[in-house]
C-alpha cells in the first residue's frame, strides 16, 4: 500500500470531460458495450487523477474497472437501495471515476484526489455515495453484514456488493466474517474478489499463496462463481446467476489482470516484471504517462470506431509540480534498511518478519542477504506477531515490520500476549505520524505511541536522524537490553537540516538540546516537526523571542535527573509532536513533570493532532493541523503578545 | 470464559496422591491402557483442583483429558524436543494435572490453582514446562509456526502438537495462520481440535456454526484426520498416521464429549441441558462434587479391577472456604443487564451484539425479549465491531459486548475505523480491571482505558454503583449525545457500602465527593477500589489524618471549572485506580491539571497497577499490587510521617 511520494513531475495531462461521459452514456448500444466504453473512459481519468495527485493505486483501479463500471451503471443506480463498496479501498481512484463519470459526484473532483478537502486516498463517508470507510484490509464482509442486518431490520430487500482484493484474503477477519454470512443465509450478499494475483509487494502466490480459493470458499458454504473479471459478458452472467441463489451468500472470483488496459502495465505482459510489479502504487513518470495515455486513447477510439461513433474529445492541462523537500532529503527508512543489514551481519539471532511491505519497510536488502532469516507473513499481522512471540522464546531476536497504523493496532492483543512472556521483540513501524497524508486516516498513524506505550516493557523510540536510526536499532538489539522496543519511523523524506543532520541518540530518557534560548523551552518529537519547530523559532527570533529546543527520541522514558536542572530555567514549556493529543509523549512528559514536583507554576502548551487526521499533501496537512512552522510560531508568539 | 466466583463452599475434597501416580505409571500394561488410567486419575485431581480453587474450567479439561494424557506420557517425554501446548488455554487445570501426574511439575501445585504464586488460571511460561502464554483464543497455530521456524533454524526436528478448541475456530487468526503452515509445508505441525461441540455459552452450532469442518481444513491444504478423541485407540492411530505425512501440516479433528467422565456433566447425556451447559467454567457445589467424585472413583476402580490391580488410594482434605463480600454485594453486570432491557423497551434503535459471552455480559434477558435485535457473533470480535460500524451508519444504535480484555484490544483497529465514521456506538466491557484475577493476565483488563481513550470521540465511563450503571447507559444512549461510549464494568461483586450504594452519575467531567477531609484529596476510579479507599481512610482517621475522597466515573473527561475550586484547598493529591499506570485516568488527570496551571506546588501520588497483573484471589491480588485498603493507608500515611 505504499506510495512513491514527492517525485517532481511535469508534462501535459489529459482527461475525458463531463460532456463526453454524457455522450457515451446516451449512445444507442447495449449495457455491456456501454460499460466497456465507460470503463475505458474511467481508466483515462483514473490515470489523470493519480498523475495529477502524485500518488495513488493504478494497478488495482485498472484491474477492477469493468467490475466497478458495471456495478455503478447497472446495479446501484436502480433506486432499489443496492449498495456497493470496495473493501480493499486502495482502488479508490477507479471507484471515484466511475462515480464521477456516472454523475454521482461533482465532476470537478477529478482534479482533487488526495488534496485537502478533496477526495481522500482511501474512501471516506464524507464523500457523497461512499458507503463506509475502508483502507485497512479484511473488514468488508463484516461491514456488509451490518448493512444487511439493518436492511432486514427495516424490511428493505437490496443487494449488497462488496469488492475485495486477493491479497486481502490473507487477513483473518475475512475468514472470520464468512461463518455467520452463511449461517444467517445472507443471500443479499454478493462478494466479488478482484483476483488480480498481485498484492503490494509481488505475486500473492509468492507472498502467501491462497491455494485452492474455490475450494476454500465453497467449504465455507458460499455459492462460488468464477469468471474473467475484465470480460463483461462473463462477469454479468455470473452476477445474474448469483442472484438466483436464494439461500446462501455468493462470491464471484473475478480473475483480472493488474494494470489492465495498458499493455506494459498488465502483469501478464511478456516483459512484465511481476517480481517487482511497478504499478501497484505511485504516480507515473512523464514518459510512462505518455505511453499509457496514448494506449488508453487508442483503445477507446477503437471501441468507438467499431460502432461508427465519433472519436473521443479530451481536455488537457499541465501537470502540477509536486513539492518536495530541498536537496539531500533524509530517508530514514533507507537508513533503517542499512542499519538492520549491518546488525544482522554481526548478530545471527536476528530474524526479520514482514507483512507484505518489504519495499516500504526497507527489508529488501535483508531478504536478499539473509533469506533464511526472513519471514514473509503476508497481510496477516496477528499471525506475524504471534509467530514472533515464540521465535523470541526460542533464542532468536525477531524484528517485526509493518506500517505503524497496522502494526500497533490489528495485533495489539498479540503484542500484549508477547509482553507477558517477557521476551524481547523489536517492532518497527514505518509510515508513522500524520504524513504522508495522501492515503488518508486508515494509513495515518497518530495513535501508535498511545497503544505501544500502554504495553508493559516496550520502549518507544522515534529517531530524527539517520544516525539516530542506527543507534536506536543498536540500542534495541544490544543484548544487555532486555526490553522490547518500538521504533517509530517517518517515511516521508526529511528536509536536510544541518542542526539535526548527524544528531546522535541521547542517553536513555534524555533529549538532544539543539538550540538554546531563554524565553521558553520546546520539546519536540519527530524529524519532520523538528524541522518545523526550527522554522518556527527562526520566525520567533525576528520578534526577539529565543527558545531552547530539545529533540526527544525516547517517547515513554524520561530521566528526571536530566530534565530537572534543564527546565528549572523556564516558565514556559512547549511540547510539539506528530501524534494525537491523547496518551502521547506530551501527556507522558507533562504528567511526569507534575508527578515529580517539577510542574510548579510553569505554563504547559501542548501542540499535537486533534480529531481525525486530514488527508492531503504534507505541507497542507501540517498547516491544517497547525503543526507547520508558521502556525507553531504564531501560536507561541500569541503567548507573549 | 467466565467463572462463577466467590461462591462459599464446604465439604471434603479428594485427590490422588503422588504415590498412586507412580504406581499406575509402573503397572505392567500397554501404553494405551496406561494413558486411560492416567486420564482417570487426572480427572479426579482436576476436579479437586477446581473445587479447591473455587473456579476453573471442568468441561474442556475433561473433554481433552485423553488427548493431553497421551501426549504428555508418550509424545513430549521422549527427549526428542517435541512440544505440546494448548491454544485455548482454559483447559489448564487438565493440562497441569497431566504434567503433575507425570512428574514434570511439583506435586504440591495441585493445591495451588489460581493462587498467588501458584498455577495461573491460564498457562504462563513462569510455570516450568509451559511452552507459551495462552488464554486469548486463536493464537496457537501462529505460535506453533514460530516454534517450528526456530527448530528448523537450529536444525532440530521435533513434532509440535497444538490443541485448540472448536469455538476458538471462530477467531479469524486461526484461519489466518493456516495459509503459511501449508505453503511452508510444516509437516512438524500436528493440530488437534478438541471438538467438544460446546463453547462458553452453548453449542458451537448455535453460536456460530462451523459448518463442514473437514472440508474447510482440507480446502486450506491440511491433511485432515478425524476420530473419537476420548477413544485412545482411535486417537493414537490418527497420530501415528498423521506422522507419516511428510509434505503437509496435519489436523486431527477429535470429536470429544464436554465434561467427559462424569455422566451428568457430559453434554451428550440424555438430561443434559446443552442450551445452558453448566460445566464450562466455575467450581462444583458440594452436592455436585460428591456425585462427580464418586463416579470418577468408581470408574477408575473399575479399570483397575478389570486388570486385577489394587484399588485407588485417595487423600482427602476439607474444602477451604472461599471468601466473599459481606452481605448484599452489588452485581454491576446484573444492573447493566436490567438497564439495557429498560433502555431497549423505550428505544427501538438499540441492537445488542455479543461475542459468545451472553451470560457474562448480562445479555440473556435482552436476547430473550428482543431476539430480532440481538446478534450473536461468536468468538469473532473484529467481525462484531465492523458489523456494529455499518449498523450504526444505518440508523440503529449498536451496543457491543465482550470482556474488556478482548473488546478493547483484538478489534481496536476496527474501533478506530468506526470512529472515523463519526457514528455512535456503545462499547460495553465487563470483567474490567485487575480482578477477578484467577483467570490470569489474558483476562485481566488493565490497559482498556489506555486503548479506548486513545480513540477519537469515545467517552470512557466506569460506574461504581448500580444507579451509575443505569445513568451511564442512559447518558450513552441519549440521542442528544453524539459521542461513542465505552462503559467499563466490574464483574466481581462489590461489597455493600452505604456511601456509594446509591450514588448517582455526576455531571459530565465531574466526580462524586463522598467524603471530606483536609489533609489531602483522593481521586478514585472503580467501585472495588472506592471501597478499598474508604477502608484506607478509616485507618488513616485513627492516625488523625482526614481525606476528601472523590469518585471519578468519567475516565477521559474533566471539567476544569469544577475541579479548580475543589483542589485549591489541597497540597496533596492522590489518584487510585484499577488500571495500569500508563495512559490511565491518573495520567490524564495529572496532565490536565498541569496543563491548566493547577499543578502548582502540589504533590501528586498515583497508585495503579505496575507490570504484569498477578493471578490469584481478589484480596491477595489487590494486596500484591498494593491496592487494598491497608496498603493504600500505609502508603498515604508514609507521606505524613
Notes on the protein architecture:
Two copies of one chain form a homodimer. By secondary structure, chain A is an alpha/beta fold. Chain A contains 25 helices and 18 strands. In chain A, β5, α11 (232-244) and β6 form a beta-alpha-beta unit. In chain A, α13 (332-346) runs parallel beside α19 and α15 (381-393) packs parallel to α17. The first copy, chain A, is globular and about 80 Å long. The interface between A and B is large, with 106 and 105 residues.
Summary, kept brief:
Chain A is 39% helix and 15% strand. Chain A contains 25 helices and 18 strands. In chain A, strands 9-8-10-11-13-12 form a six-stranded parallel sheet, sandwiched between helices. In chain A, strands 2-3-4-6-5 form a five-stranded parallel sheet, sandwiched between helices.
Per-chain topology:
2 copies of one chain form a homodimer.
Chain A: E1 12-15, H1 18-25, H2 31-53, H3 58-63, H4 65-75, E2 83-86, H5 92-101, H6 140-153, E3 160-164, H7 172-176, H8 178-183, E4 189-195, H9 204-208, H10 213-219, E5 223-228, H11 232-244, E6 250-255, H12 286-306, E7 315-318, H13 332-346, E8 350-354, H14 364-369, E9 374-376, H15 381-393, E10 397-403, H16 404-407, H17 412-419, E11 426-430, H18 448-454, E12 458-461, H19 466-477, E13 484-488, H20 498-501, E14 512-515, E15 520-524, H21 527-542, E16 547-551, H22 560-567, E17 572-580, H23 585-595, E18 603-609, H24 618-624, H25 629-638
Parallel strand pairs in A: 2-3, 3-4, 4-6, 5-6, 8-9, 8-10, 10-11, 11-13, 12-13, 15-16, 15-17, 17-18
Antiparallel strand pairs in A: 1-7, 14-16
Helix pairs in contact in A: 2-4, 2-5, 2-12, 4-5, 13-19, 15-17, 21-25
